[in-house]
Amino acid sequence: MMLDNIVTAIEALPDVSAARRAALDALLRLGLPGPHEEQWKYTDLSVLQTLAAEDIAPNPDTHEFPADYADGLDALNAALAGGQQHRPIDGQVRLDTGRHGRYHLTVDGNAELRLEDAGDTRFATCFITLALAPGARLRLTRVLTASEAAHRITRIAISVAENARVDIVTIDLDARFARHDLAVALDAPGATAHLYGLYAPAGATHLDHHVRVDHRAAHCISRGYFRGLAFDRACAVFNGRIMVHPHAQKTDSELRIANLLLSRKAQINAKPELEIYADDVKCAHGATFGRLDPTALFYLRTRGVPEAAARALLTYSFANEIFQHIHPPELRSEITAKFLTRMDGGAGITELT
Fold first, then answer.
1. Which uninterrupted H or E stretch holds 294?
2. CB neighbours (10 Å) of residue 83?
3. In what order do the strands lie in the sheet with 85-88?
4. How far apart are CA 112 and CA 166, in angstroms?
5. With a threshold of 0.90, does the pTM exceed it?
6. Run of H or E residues at 155
7. What is the H or E stretch that residue 301 is in?
């Protein structure tokens, strides 16, 4: 079993701390979530059982372990990452999420955080908490373009203080298996969050994306726009929830999810949720599913565009609604080029700006 492999690998390390052993005990006690739980209905972690624990992080004295764990995955990450690192961020910062890591980051001014995973490690977990001070600004970009053998579990939890703003773009393209949880809490009046995301699994891959936005105070704004594409025999899962708590009056929130199935064997399970406990709010949510528009395909074909190129162009146009929010432009061009190469007929398409 995977848990046995992890326990054995960590216990073989020199000088295993008592806190790390406590994380292992919590992992064994809590276990891992399974398909019987609503949030894991479409994602089975048994796929991880054959993986060995690799690249286990050291356990420096400066890393901290929590007293309690939210679930078995929380304990698993702490045990593999060797505790949590604390650091403020300012300006432009990059982190590699293709290895085990656990971070608590604080933002007092303006910052840009880029989370990148283009690695070839088979298994990695990365858990990050972010705290934005009043008036702070954060631009967060997370990109997953790992190897076809990669298995990833990431969690990002962000608290947004008064008049602070976070802009988030998440791009999930490549990994054999990935689960990404993103939670944003708007904790004080004037807090704002804009979220954009694209998930586009291909081959026989499985990408699971869960987003939750909590409106905990009055006069907060959130926007969530996500697009999904599934190629070949791939499976995509998206769950988005907006929670408007009591006293969060004057909430302004919107969540939109659009999906394209590009193969008869591909699957997308998408579910938007809206839960409201305040009476003076403006909220909307919805999800759509479809295939490429045959009328648009016919129009392009009548103008001499080959069928493969026409399909690639329409697919790219759909995804570009999210790509256009990627900064800086160099990164946008890099991600766009990688996306286009996976499609027959995509090589001749020029990036839309």
1. helix 294-302
2. 21
3. 85-88, 101-107, 123-132, 151-160, 177-186, 206-215, 235-244, 267-276
4. 10
5. yes
6. strand 151-160
7. helix 294-302
Q: Pairing between strand 151-160 and 85-88? A: unpaired
- pLDDT tens digits for range 239-277: 999 999 999 999 999 999 999 999 999 999 999 999 999
Identity of the amino acid at 226: F
Q: Residue 55 carries which DSSP code?
A: S
352 Cβ contact partners less than 8 Å away, ≥ 6 residues apart = 316, 317, 320, 324
Helix axes 2-11, 18-30, angle to 10 degrees: 170
- CA atoms of 177 and 46, how far apart (whole Å): 11
The residue whose two tokens read 């479809």 is: 290
The dihedral through the CA atoms of 294, 300, 303, 304 has a sign that is negative
The predicted structure's pLDDT at residue 56: 80
C-alpha 290/C-alpha 229 separation (Å) is 10
Encoded amino acid at 101, one letter:
G
Range 54-67 burial, b when 16+ CB lie within 10 A, else e: eebbebeeebebbe
